[in-house]
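Module 6 notes. Inverse folding takes a fixed backbone as the condition and produces residue identities as the prediction. Think of it as a translation problem where the source language is geometry and the target language is the twenty amino acids. Below is one complete input and output pair. Work through it position by position during the lab.
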């Protein structure tokens, strides 16, 4: 009898000291602030070496993930875009080139000085014809907030992005100079409101016309998305850069036998796109990555088709099938579970290697984690997510016992401004103990 009681006592003691119970206690302390009383908190913590979940809290429930959605777009890009981005495909005759865009967002983007596609276009003396027959999408993603149209974080998507699909406006009051990059011939007027003392540019909702409020600052820069109008705006903006007219023909088929064989121009290594996309949570890069993946897989830029294909093939074993509608997470229609992100991160580690993912994802003190995890940086590699009321963080955590853990924390309906610090303290505690 005493032996049986001892076994029961040992079992209860082991349960009381189990990782799940201990982590659950830490989670309760970390997320008990009044601002989180009405919030939904989902946590999933996984040990890939043991193939075991250390702790789960609402891990199979759906949450709006915000920019954690970019992890799924990253997977699509890693899977289908190869080693180098396709900057452009083209077919030619003796006198003309048919340009077939690939969706590459780095074309003429100010971050990238090397521009192989533009170098090629400047060298040829043939007439240029541009088609978007492979475009099967809308400029704005499903469920995006229309009134964010002027924000630099929400450029329109397109088959042939140019300059990041934004106009950069620069005011230098000290030298009395004012200009845009690129130079445009679209409508510009100055606001008559003299009470506004800060520089601001607002585009008309329905057309490429801009109202400028002059400010008192000596130097100010603002990026404003332009209306892409399919490939029409790109053709207009390319005219001065290329040095001649670029003709657009939506009905031109890329399979028309009058044109020659398809040639490919690669623009740059894929990771040179993926790093800023994840480090700085670039919505535009993420959207175009998903579109490019569809273009390479099917010859069409079509979000719904590439998402459905991924979920039915490469990602068919996800714990819960997500509601996935865009590439960036700007949409509140996206719904994923913490288990989904842990499963995906584990799959990416196995398929593409943790060293490569560490080079792509931000760590403490860098990118979107620049203000967090700065003490003893280099033990966490994770993607942040933020919308009003939404905070997310999913990634890899290396403990002080040299143990790799994969985690996902999704919080919805949050009103605690310090919640990211609470997540930081919670994960630091995990690192110390395990």
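Target side of the pair, the amino acids:
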């Amino acid at each position: 009898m005493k032996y049986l009681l001892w076994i029961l006592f040992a079992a209860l003691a082991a349960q009381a000291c189990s990782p799940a119970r201990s982590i659950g206690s830490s989670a309760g302390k970390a997320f008990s602030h009044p601002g989180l009383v009405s919030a939904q908190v989902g946590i999933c913590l996984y040990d890939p070496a043991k193939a075991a979940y250390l702790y789960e809290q609402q891990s199979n429930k759906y949450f709006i993930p915000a920019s954690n959605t970019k992890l799924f777009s990253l997977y699509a890009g890693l899977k289908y875009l190869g080693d180098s981005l396709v900057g452009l495909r083209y077919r030619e005759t003796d006198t003309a080139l048919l340009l077939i865009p690939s969706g590459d967002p780095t074309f003429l983007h100010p971050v990238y000085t090397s521009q192989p596609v533009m170098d090629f276009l400047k060298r040829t003396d043939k007439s240029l014809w541009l088609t978007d027959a492979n475009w099967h999408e809308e400029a704005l993603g499903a469920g995006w907030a229309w009134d964010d149209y002027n924000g630099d974080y929400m450029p329109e998507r397109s088959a042939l992005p140019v300059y990041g699909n934004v106009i950069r406006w620069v005011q230098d009051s000290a030298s009395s100079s004012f200009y845009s990059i690129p130079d445009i011939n679209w409508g510009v007027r100055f606001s008559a409101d003299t009470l506004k003392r800060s520089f601001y540019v607002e585009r008309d909702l329905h057309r490429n016309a801009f109202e400028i409020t002059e400010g008192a600052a000596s130097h100010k820069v603002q990026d404003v998305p332009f209306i892409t109008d399919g490939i029409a705006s790109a053709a207009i903006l390319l005219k001065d850069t290329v040095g001649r007219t670029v003709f657009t023909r939506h009905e031109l088929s890329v399979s028309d036998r009058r044109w020659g064989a398809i040639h490919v121009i690669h623009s740059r290594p894929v990771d040179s796109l993926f790093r800023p996309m994840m480090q700085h949570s670039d919505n535009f890069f993420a959207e175009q990555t998903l579109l490019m993946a569809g273009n390479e897989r099917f010859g069409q830029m079509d979000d719904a088709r590439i998402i459905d294909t991924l979920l039915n093939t490469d990602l068919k074993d996800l714990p819960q099938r997500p509601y996935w509608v865009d590439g960036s997470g700007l949409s509140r229609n996206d719904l994923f579970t913490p288990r989904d992100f842990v499963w995906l991160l584990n799959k990416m580690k196995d398929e593409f290697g943790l060293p490569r993912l560490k080079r792509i994802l931000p760590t403490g003190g860098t990118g979107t984690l620049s203000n967090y995890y700065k003490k003893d940086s280099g033990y966490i590699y994770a993607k942040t997510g933020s919308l009003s009321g939404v905070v997310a963080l999913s990634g890899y955590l290396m403990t002080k016992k040299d143990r790799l853990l994969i985690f996902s924390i999704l919080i919805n309906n949050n009103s605690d401004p310090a919640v990211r610090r609470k997540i930081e303290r919670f994960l630091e505690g995990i690192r110390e103990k395990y």
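Reference fact for the lab report: Residues 3-16 have pLDDT under 50 and may be disordered.
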